[in-house]
Amino acid sequence: MTTVHIPLPSVLALAAILFCIGLYGALSKRSLIIVLVSLELMLSSVNINLVAFSQLGAFPNLRGQVFSLFTITVAAAEIAVGFAIVLAFFRFRKSADADDANSQKR
Amino acid sequence: MSLYSLLHAHLGLTMGPLSIVAISAVLVMLIELLLPTRFLQLPVWLSLLGLLVALVDAFIHLSQVPQYSLHTLVSDGLASILTCLILLLSLLLLLFHVDELKSQTNQFPREGAYLFLFATAGALAMVTAVDLVTLYVGLELLSVSSYILVAMTRKRLALEGGMKYLVLGGVGSALFLYGASFIYGMTGQTNLYTIARMSHQLWLLNPAIVVLSFLLMLCGLGVKLSLVPFHYWTPDAYEGASASVAGFLASVSKSATFAMTLRVLLYLFLGSTHDVFPYVAAMAALTMVAGNLLALGQNKLRRLLAVSSVAQAGYLLIPIALLAQATPNTWPLVYNSLVFYLVSYSIVTIGAFAVLSILEQRYEVQEIADLSRLPRQYRWLRAAFACFLLGFAGMPLTSGFMGKLYLLIAALRLHELWLGVLLFAVSVISFYYYLKPIRTMYQKQLFTDNGEGQAVSRQTATQTVIAFCVLVTLLLGVWPGILLQAFSHVQWY
Fold it and tell me: In this structure, how many other beta carbons lie within 10 angstroms of the beta carbon of residue B51?
């Protein structure tokens, strides 16, 4: 079986691009669903980073993969809470749009 | 990991209070599930019991020799002192949360009780852990529980505040984690002690990536600490949440995150050839100035307290910025001034939010101007509120003044005088907006309706909390040695 060698920098670049897309989406999108998806994207790019370092990094070991398992679990909890809050907001306002969360504006 | 090493890991010392709080959180959750709906307050009392046991356990072991177990948890001075502080603060908050449950206007579900406990467990993990994975899990346990707590009353403001907190808090944790992943990549380690030993060679090999990960982690923690470019969620979340939850965000959450910030930045980035702490100093200065200027224009009490907590976060960042000049000989100075100010600020904050919860439930006070409606016979409540506001501002004879004085002394000793001077300059500005509510409370009433306000059952627990906070504020203002003497025996790290 031949193993394909992917160089570390290109994996890191992929993670960095995904992270930036996620950051842009989380800060600029109007739909709250898209915002939560963007958050998930940022956390996933961190996972790519951790797994890449644990396999191809200067000191390969399993800590990175364990770390990424924790990250996945915690991110799932965070997004579940996020969707619960969006759902409650939607029932209240009949809208899942970030612009409608404006009642503190004076 | 053999059983032998597990048995000799001093787990009782390092994770005793943490496990007591976590276990009681799970127990209260199960009991709450099975309990008939008419027992509204029982979960809160059970949670209080759990916190009390944990506090006693933490207090008994305060003078023990620091231990290090499982390469993850420590019981050094910072961990044990902050554990005691966090448990005490949670206890006070839950105590006045009991009265909020009774009030009809709030509609706070009783699930809040164990969410407080879970959040407290997260905060304890943040102050005792020395491993990036555990620190991250603790941070998220605290944050996710707080998101739910903020949105829990399901009023419109609460939902909006909770949502904004969730989105920005999520971005913050992602930034922190992204920075941490680079640290792991360069060292192959997640343990702070091991990384601290390697940090010198880390800086020699790739300083650019270290600076990048420093900035990412600082921004991520900055969101959680509501430092200035990242503070947008703070007023909205504080306004939407119930008073006890807002107090929790301002005191427990902030104390734990500051302790974690100090530990992470000290261990990961101190052995540097490229000095990164001026970025922290710049952020502290920006937060102090912008926070105080923003507070000048606030008319609502909640938003005033929220923005003032942003400004206070700037003051609290000063000791961390001072690490640049500190040598191991002067580290205790940094730790002393940070922890003293954390104690003073947290107690004052909890007191202020306790007063606010009475004012809101009885008189529906929202704006500063509404304070003039307060009937004359509430002179103790007024005096307490005035005491807390002056404590925030740093009036002599209150703990806030002593806290700021020690920050100034630390800045002076570590040759960063400009930070101390700036601290006192902006404190002068802060007197303007802290005195505004006091003036409104004590001015002659334009129209006298001596109505009793909303008919609310007696709020004994809240009054106890207020009395305790006033006492501590004045005691630390008059006699700060009581705490500083104790700190001088503490082995912080």
Answer: 27
Chain B residue closest to A52 (CA)?
A: B185
Find the closest chain B residue to A44 by CA distance.
B174
B96-153: per-residue pLDDT in tens? 888 887 775 556 777 888 999 999 999 999 999 999 999 999 999 999 999 999 998 8
Contacts of B239 in chain A (CB under 8 A): 104
As for how many domains chain A has, the answer is 1
In this prediction, residue B219 carries a pLDDT of: 94
Rounded Cα distance between B290 and A90, Å, is 34
- The pLDDT value recorded for residue A104 is 62
Minimal-distance CA residue of chain A relative to B171: A39
| Cβ–Cβ contact A83 with B under 8 A | no
Distance of residue A5 Cα from the nearest chain B Cα, in angstroms:
18
Q: Is residue A36 a part of any domain in this protein?
A: yes
Does this complex have an ipTM over 0.90? Answer: yes
* Residue of B166, B186, B197 to mutate when probing chain A, most A C-beta within 10 A: B166
Amino acid at B329: N
Please state whether the predicted TM-score (pTM) of the whole model is above 0.90: yes
Domain assignment of residue A99, yes or no: no
Name the residue facing A70 among B133, B184, B239 (closest C-beta): B133
Other CB atoms within 10 Å distance of the CB of residue B435: 15
Q: Give the Cα separation of B336 and B490 in Å (integer).
A: 9
What is the domain extent for residue A26? 8-94
Is residue A51 included in any domain, yes or no? yes
Interface of B with A (CB under 8 A): 132-133, 136-137, 140, 143-144, 147-148, 151, 154, 156-157, 159-164, 166-167, 170-171, 173-174, 177-178, 181-182, 184-190, 235-236, 239
Interface test with A, best of B115, B168, B178 (most A CBs within 10 A): B178
* Cβ atoms B298, B304 nearer than 8 A: yes
From the CB of residue B172, how many other CB atoms can be counted at a distance below 10 Å? 24
A71–chain B Cβ distance below 8 A for any pair: yes
State which residues of chain B have pLDDT below 50.
none
CA pair distance B179, B387, nearest whole angstrom: 41
A67 touches chain B (CB under 8 A): yes
Instruction: For residue A13, count CB atoms less than 10 angstroms from its CB and return exposed for 0-12, middle for 13-18, buried for 19 or more.
Output: exposed
CATH number, residue A47: 1.10.287.3510
Q: Is A49–B178 a contact, with Cβ atoms under 8 angstroms apart?
A: yes
**B295 Cβ partners below 8 Å, 6+ apart?**
B304, B307, B308, B310, B311, B430, B433
Residues with Cβ < 8 Å from B18, sequence gap 6 or more? B73, B83, B121, B124, B125, B128
A48 occurs within a structural domain:
yes
- What token pair was written down for A6? 């992917």
pLDDT score for B452: 54
* Residues forming beta bridges with residue B68, ordered by sequence position: B74
